[in-house]
């Protein structure tokens, strides 16, 4: 047999050769891709947690001791508010030094803002090495007319990796980013105990002389946060960036050794965060990392009346007194804070894919709080860590 | 694509593994596939490259192993080769040693030169030529053996 005949005959025999793979091949491919997506999701969970944990470790590793030099004293104060006399308040302050002269108390709340970077996707198919083709000229010579494989029917989630509800129809002139805006409502559950501090004014509660009530507890109930947001999301790989405003309302109580301050807190904030989404038809799950700066206004009042503590003659029993004539304005202080939040968010596309519902849960940590000087003996609350539950709706205006 | 994988693999299970890896790579690279010509041709190239990668990973180059015993002086006629069942021919190719099978597929069916084959498999051109010659010789001997066995059976029945 001639050399060329043998080759040509063998080559010709295999032209058009078909063989259908078993069903297990397709299920194995689907399982592999699902497992890989889940692995990436676990890693997305881990990175923000490690970042916040690292920031928390850095936060709590910065401790400074402070000296207690205040002595017990009785003071009387009279403060004039626009010509009106404030009721004098008698109080006794007992420092820890008197109770435990040899014991020092570390100062709290001197924090350093931790450096946190926006997470980036770990898996970027676009950066993978291209297929190595040794002979670029060979591709035109491969006979294909009879090599027909069984047509593969892809589901909507497999074709080009797109979901029609979240990524739309692929067109050459379409932008690689989608944009949407929405609003999110959130409520919070306190995950750690809020602390309260007082100090002899006009010192700063965070760097001045720390009162013995410094370690007492407070309650912090952030019951509502409203956050309109604007989001950019990259098509085909799930990476997104979100910028949001935030307004929050909180009920607080500051329990000091001399009494309890009741009040509320309002805050206005601006946040920015990133997320990575995994899409399955109409449902999308995202892991997010977000930072938010807020301007807090804390006011101690019961209703519109300033509320302060009072002592009876026997001592130790606190009463809460308000000005019945409503002539004394409620005391308040302002403070800037920065928080970081990690969480997961689920989105569901409605029949109109431009509208989506979302729900999420996150963990928020206020890792920097402004050193606030106070003008009277009100308490300053150190914000706790919070578990954030939220619901929202969004509209995508570019499809 | 499975037909291609079957030619390069030693068995159906190995061919299915190559096929699975091919589709996973195709899904990952689909975003980069833009106007690269026939989609089938693109998938074909991925299949061949995946098979070669599997071979390089395995590195079981028993290319000097000769499992066919004595040399035969017979030759294979065109009719024998054309009339032979394709599944039998495929099985004989799969039974070739790993390195021989790779070289045979790339030379006889894909049409690469020995120099190109050497670059793809990490061998020199002379080795590619000798392996191809031995692969073809072994294949012919097996085809002859199959043909003789068939004749013996038909005579004996």
3D structure, described in words:
The complex is a heterodimer of chains A (399) and B (157). By secondary structure, chain A is mainly beta. Chain A is 14% helix and 43% strand. Chain A has 3 helices and 18 strands. In chain A, strands 7-9-10-11-12-15-16-18 form an 8-stranded antiparallel barrel. With 157 residues, chain B is mainly α. Helix content of chain B is 71%, strand content 0%. Chain B contains 8 helices and no strands. Chain B has helices spanning 2-8, 12-29, 39-58, 78-83, 86-94, 98-109, 114-121, 125-156. The radius of gyration of chain B is 17 Å and the shape is globular. The N and C termini of chain B lie far apart (40 Å). Residues 61-73 of chain B have low confidence and may be disordered. Classes of the chains: A mainly beta (399), B mainly alpha (157). Chain A binds chain B through residues 1, 5-7, 9-11, 13-14, 17-22, 24-25, 28-29, 32-33, 125-126, 128, 130-135, 138-139, 141-142, 144, 147, 149, 158, 160-161, 236, and chain B through 1-4, 6-7, 16, 19-20, 23-25, 27-32, 37-38, 40-41, 44-46, 49, 75-78, 81-82, 86, 89-90, 107-112, 116, 119-120, 136, 140.
Quickly describe the structure.
Chain A is mostly beta strands and 399 residues long. Chain A is built from 3 helices and 18 strands.
Strand content of chain B: under 5%
What gross morphology of chain B would you assign?
Answer: globular
Count the E strands of chain B: 0
Largest sheet of chain B: none
Characteristic terms for this protein:
heterodimer; A: 399 residues; eight-stranded antiparallel beta barrel; two-stranded antiparallel sheet; B: 157 residues; mainly alpha; globular
């Amino acid at each position: 047999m001639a050399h060329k005949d043998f080759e040509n005959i063998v080559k010709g025999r295999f032209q058009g050769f078909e063989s259908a793979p078993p069903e297990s091949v397709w299920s194995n491919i689907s399982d592999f891709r699902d497992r890989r997506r889940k692995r990436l999701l676990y890693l997305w969970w881990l990175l923000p947690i490690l970042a916040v944990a690292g920031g928390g470790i850095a936060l709590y590793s910065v401790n400074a001791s402070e000296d207690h030099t205040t002595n017990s004293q009785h003071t009387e104060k009279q403060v004039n508010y626009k010509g009106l006399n404030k009721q004098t308040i008698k109080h006794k302050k007992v420092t820890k030094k008197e109770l435990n002269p040899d014991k020092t108390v570390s100062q709290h709340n001197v924090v350093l803002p931790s450096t946190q970077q926006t997470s980036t996707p770990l898996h970027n198919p676009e950066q993978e090495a291209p297929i190595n083709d040794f002979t670029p000229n060979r591709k035109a010579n491969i006979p294909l007319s009879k090599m027909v494989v069984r047509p593969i029917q892809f589901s909507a989630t497999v074709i080009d990796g797109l979901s029609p509800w979240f990524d739309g129809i692929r067109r050459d002139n379409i932008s690689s980013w989608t944009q949407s805006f929405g609003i999110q409502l959130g409520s919070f559950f306190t995950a750690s105990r809020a602390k309260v501090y007082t100090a002899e004014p006009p010192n700063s509660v965070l760097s001045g002389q720390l009162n013995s009530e410094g370690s007492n507890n407070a309650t912090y109930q952030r019951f509502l946060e409203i956050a309109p947001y604007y989001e950019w999301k990259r098509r085909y790989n799930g990476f997104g960036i979100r910028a949001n405003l935030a307004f929050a309302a909180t009920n607080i109580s500051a329990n000091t050794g001399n009494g309890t301050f009741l009040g509320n807190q309002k805050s206005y904030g601006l946040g920015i965060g990133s997320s990575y989404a995994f899409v399955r038809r109409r449902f999308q799950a995202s892991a997010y990392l977000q930072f938010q700066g807020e301007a807090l206004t804390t006011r101690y009042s019961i209703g519109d009346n300033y509320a302060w503590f009072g002592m009876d003659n026997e001592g130790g029993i606190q009463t809460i007194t308000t000005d019945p004539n409503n002539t004394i304005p409620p005391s308040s202080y302002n403070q800037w804070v920065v928080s970081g939040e990690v969480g997961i968010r689920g989105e569901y596309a409605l029949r109109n894919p431009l509208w989506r519902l979302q729900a999420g849960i996150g963990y928020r940590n206020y890792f920097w709080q402004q050193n606030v000087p106070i003008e009277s003996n009100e308490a300053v609350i150190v914000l706790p860590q919070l578990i954030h539950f939220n619901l929202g709706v969004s509209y995508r205006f570019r499809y | 694509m499975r037909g291609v994988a079957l030619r390069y693999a030693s068995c159906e299970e190995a061919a299915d593994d190559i096929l699975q890896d091919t589709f996973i790579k195709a899904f990952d690279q689909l975003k980069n596939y833009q106007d690269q010509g026939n989609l089938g041709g693109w998938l074909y190239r991925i299949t061949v490259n995946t098979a070669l990668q599997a071979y390089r990973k395995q590195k079981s180059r028993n290319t000097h192993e000769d499992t066919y015993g004595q040399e035969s002086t017979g030759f294979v006629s065109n009719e024998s080769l054309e009339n032979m069942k394709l599944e039998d021919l495929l099985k004989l190719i799969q039974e070739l040693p790993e390195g021989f099978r790779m070289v045979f597929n790339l030379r006889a069916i894909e049409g690469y030169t020995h120099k190109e084959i050497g670059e793809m498999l990490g061998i020199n051109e002379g080795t590619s030529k000798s392996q191809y010659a031995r692969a073809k010789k072994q294949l012919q001997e097996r085809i002859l053996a199959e043909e003789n066995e068939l004749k013996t059976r038909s005579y004996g029945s």
